[in-house]
Design goal:
3 helices; alpha+beta; seven-stranded antiparallel sheet; 153 residues; Alpha-D-Glucose-1,6-Bisphosphate, Chain A, domain 4
Length: 153
């Protein structure tokens, strides 16, 4: 049975800039943004839109995973919604049979965006033994916010 965890966070970046970073520029931004977490990223298929496949090779600060392939399974430019599903490695090597993160971006002001995050997952392991939490996703978002604010200035 697929379960969900939801959270949200406000960031001080305009929705259009954030959308471009999540969509078309993700593979270029991640290694610059968090080089100790993501050593490099490659777009194996697609153009950043629907059905694009990314390969993320993890850096030295991630001890439990070496890589993860993710497919863009949702991509709606009109409502600024992107979903990334793990298709190989990473979380799938740690007890999950399904792991997807969806980001919904909503403008809340001239330089502010609300990000609603939904993590859907399925696991055969006991719930309390799974390393699932939203804190790593929130840290990722804060790193992206800081990166985009510093690049734009």
């Amino acid at each position: 049975m697929i379960k969900e965890v939801k959270t949200q966070v406000n960031v001080g970046v305009e929705v259009g800039v954030l959308w471009k970073a999540f969509g078309k520029d993700l593979k270029d931004i991640l290694p610059k943004m968090v080089p100790n977490l993501v050593k490099d990223a490659d777009m194996l298929e697609g153009d950043g839109g629907l059905n694009t496949v990314y390969l993320f090779n993890f850096g030295p600060d991630i001890k439990t995973m070496t890589y993860q392939k993710e497919r863009v399974t949702e991509f709606d430019e009109f409502v600024h919604r992107i979903g990334l599903e793990v298709i190989e490695g990473g979380h799938l090597n740690h007890g999950f049979s399904h792991y997807k993160t969806t980001f919904q971006l909503t403008s809340t002001g001239e330089q502010e965006t609300l990000i609603d995050v939904t993590i859907s997952y399925e696991s055969q392991a006991e719930e309390d033994t799974m390393p699932l939490n939203t804190s790593s996703t929130l840290v990722f978002i804060k790193h992206m916010e800081n990166y985009l604010m510093n690049v734009a200035t």
